[in-house]
Amino acid sequence: MTEPCYITASCQITPGKVVKDGALLMENENIAPISYLQWLYEQKGYNYPKFYKMDGLSRLGWLAAECLLEGSFDKNRYAPEQVGLICCNRNSSLDTDTRYYDTVKTIPSPALFVYTLPNIVLGEICIRHQFRGENDFFIFERFEPVFLQAYVQQLMQENVFEACICGWLEFLGEAYQACLYLVEKPASKNSVPFTTATIQTIYENTHG
Amino acid sequence: MSDLKAQIVAQLNLQHVKPEDIGDDMPLFAEGLGLDSIDALELIVLLQQEYKLKLNNAEEGPKVFRTVRTMAEYIKSHQA
Amino acid sequence: MYSSNAAVYVGGLGVVTAIGNNKAECLASLEAGKAGIAGITLLDTIHKNTLPVAEVKLSNQELERRTGLRAHTSRTALLSVLAAREALEDAGISSASEWRMGFISANSVGGMDKTENFFPGFLANANSGHLRSVVNHECGAVTEIAADALRIQHFVSTISTACSSGANSIFFGARMIRHGLLDIAVAGGTDALTKFTLNGFNTLQILDKEWCMPFDEERRGLNLGEGAGYVVLMSEKVMQSLGKQPYCKLTGWANANDAHHQTASSPEGAGSFAAMKGALDMSGLAAADISYINLHGTGTQNNDISEGTAIQRLFSAPYPLMSSTKSFTGHTLGASGGVEAVFSALSVQQNLVYPNLRLHTPIQALPFAATTEFSRAHTVHHVLSNSFGFGGNCSSLIFSKS
Asked: By the 8 A CB rule, do A102 and C119 touch?
């Protein structure tokens, strides 16, 4: 018997736009894609100075997780090890790899080197929210809703975690896309069933 | 020392801090400015880039990077 | 389909590291106490004479010849094919078998070695260099090249979670088998030495300028290594039809996040404790059941005290035997979980305990010391293998007698 799971929140960030639970949350089209993330951070009034030190992929994932969880997640419901993260992308940490590699010619930068792995963004989200559950980062040619649904559903079923932040986190140059889902077992007011179809619909809705 | 403060802010991406907010004797790590181990490594890069100084002995780090004043003193005493 | 306690067997092993080009050679070095660490010969770098590394003793040309892969293939892929093919042959599986077979491989540098050779020329003149060198840069491309060479098509996946990714690939493969999605999973990791990682770890000031001394009070850091290691995991059905004796079973695994810092481990080893405990819980074992721990044991101040503290919290005297085989192979990053899984499986099968080389003064804050003797004298029932990575990603695997 498959126990159903629900998408209790979703958040999509693309250059200039944040879509939360299917609705446009913040938009600014008069800003360079690369500056948009910092603009968003400042607009939201976050106070997390480490944000400024993060690379593009971590800034993107960190902001997407903030917007995803805000008003949608009751932290007290779960022990730290019950919240897991399963993310994937296409280009790993290539954006920062090349930036770091440019510094090797002169003095290699330790602050850039630490971000030359795709799973560091998961670590940043875990540090921020003190999540200690299972983390995994997969590299795929393209977004794979079938895999994501099947894998996360199984791990929920096996009680590897009780809540999961999962999705796509891709960052390369001017192009980026974060699409995160909060998956939980109990349904909530605006939740939708965690199915391949709902995952795909949310992923395609970058405009709200 | 104000040049050094500006360099620290730039090198470490401390966009939430104004150089003048850093006190000469304010601890740079932990309860002071709150820098971490990666920042310490970036400060070594800063010394190398801006002052051509190489901190060879890693154990010197905590002493040299205690405050802006100790950093400035280190730079002054090691520059030819 | 899914059975939470269905057996997952280890039916084949393949490995290449600085101490050997296959498992027989690696075992001989482990028994002889012969480390593979030496000066840099294969990389063109300013650190040539200052930083010892653990290089695989085969040139790219030799690897191309042995694997039959074409020239200009990334070394990461060459090492991967060499080790994975050994594992498949060892398991007695031909690529044309009717089983649903998957290839799950980890790496952290991808085809960076080729990109490095490409960039200097490219930056000087954008028309120079072959684009072929960079198209394989991303981590996923390395896995695809290897899967093609191995003719594995049913399922191919790349995991990239730093130094724990080899271990993560292995338990991902085991899950696929338990869920009935695969019959056979070739799982592990590969990474080649690159200037990228050498310079990067050097900026973090965690490289030892001498040979590393894991779990020693006077440890100074790690030596980077390279290699690949794969296990062939299989279901009960496959095992029976092959009619062979497996090496062991994979009975437990867990992954947890340390949630402390991008690169440093928490002082109390929160993540490593949770990973070890989770793996024990899954296998239904008590800490006292573990015969040998293959430590993550990089040789950095931070890792070893954090890992040791977590072991101290989870285990009690008499502590299990333990050692870091990184004192032989260096730290092979994305490959290390795979390489050490191979060593762990051999340990369970043949009752081997490997020595921790160059241990002079055990860490004083810990109530136990790593073992310094190669031994066949202990019955090894269960081995715990630890792999922890940047990003706080901590994994533990448990291999048990079958």
From this structure: no
